[in-house]
Specification:
Blueprint lengths: L1 E7 L2 E9 L5 E2 L11 E4 L2 E4 H10 L7 E4 L12 E4 L1 H10 L16 H9 L5 H8 L3 H8 L11 H18 L2
Antiparallel strand pairs: 1-2, 2-3, 4-5, 6-7
Helix pairs in contact: 3-6, 4-5
Length: 175
């Protein structure tokens, strides 16, 4: 543990931190729900990484965010902080495979086994598949065309599980 000092606009702040193997300076207390350390400055709560960035590099421009090149939200090492756009930040998330994709996406209506069934099924119509899984015909078509759920392939073992699950749904909907 050591003290990390930052000065902004005449204010000096010290934080008890630790250093990880990859050089992240981490503050494990006062984290927000996303895992970012937060502090109060002039009665306003802000993320500590923004405060540290401004102390090290200057003003953060309007509509810009502070990104972590280390992918560690609790890191406040100025060498790991970089200003960028929201699009840059989203691209970092996608590139680092941290986006909620597939059934891990909270808005997903389908499970991976359902998608495998849809992809391999050549006997039911798009309309029947849509009704079977309570999704739109457009969604079924996008799955079959490989436009969505691209990372889900098919394998014999998984196909068997998907067929079993889908036939149970098939019976429920009366197809």
């Amino acid at each position: 543990m050591f003290d990390f000092n930052v000065r902004i606009g005449g204010y000096k702040r010290s934080f008890g931190c630790r250093v990880t193997e990859n050089g992240c300076i981490v503050l494990d207390e006062s984290l927000d729900v996303a895992g970012y350390p937060k502090i109060k400055v002039k009665k306003k709560t802000i993320r500590l990484n923004r405060y540290v960035y401004e102390g090290a590099y200057g003003q953060i421009f309007k509509n810009m965010v502070v990104r972590h090149i280390c992918d560690n939200p609790s890191c406040i090492n100025p060498a790991h902080l970089l200003m960028g756009t929201i699009a840059d930040n989203v691209a970092d998330r996608v590139e680092g495979e941290r986006s909620a994709v597939g059934e891990n996406n909270g808005r997903a209506k389908l499970k991976e086994q359902n998608v495998r069934f849809i992809k391999k099924n050549n006997t039911l119509t798009v309309t029947q598949l849509a009704k079977m899984f309570s999704v739109s015909r457009k969604n079924v078509r996008l799955i079959k065309d490989g436009k969505i759920w691209r990372k889900i392939g098919t394998s014999k073992a998984r196909d068997k599980a998907a067929t079993g699950a889908a036939s149970q749904i098939h019976e429920k909907v009366g197809l």
